[in-house]
Design a protein that fits this description.
Immunoglobulin-like; 0% helix; 8 strands; 106 residues; 3-stranded antiparallel β-sheet; mainly beta
Length: 106
């Protein structure tokens, strides 16, 4: 997997107009390569693990980031493949987890 470099641009500063009051910045991001992003919110519903099937198809294993939406709830990634990810929890509960899947476009 190659590296993608993102740059941040302020869209209000492209024209050479210097008004008395400066506008709030509107940021846009640009990368040097195409990137596929996917996100989802998963609920454990009393289980200690949950499996998410990707919406996109990947030729190599993507990068997956999982974060808990509760402070007293630990999550970890058990396994990742090109079609799905399995996320485990510290205890069986009904909390939710946010996942982000990042891969370069093929």
């Amino acid at each position: 997997m190659g590296a993608a470099i993102f740059r941040k641009f302020d869209l209000n500063r492209f024209s050479k107009v210097y008004p008395f009051l400066r506008r709030q910045p509107k940021y846009s991001y640009e990368s040097n390569s195409q990137v596929v992003l996917e996100s989802a919110i998963l609920s454990f519903d009393g289980n200690s693990q949950v499996t998410y099937n990707f919406l996109n198809t990947y030729s190599s294993v993507p990068i997956v980031v999982a974060t808990s939406q509760n402070d007293s709830f630990n999550v970890f990634i058990q396994s990742v493949s090109t079609t799905s990810v399995t996320i485990g929890a510290s205890a069986s509960s009904a909390y939710s987890v946010s996942i982000f899947v990042v891969s370069d476009a093929d």
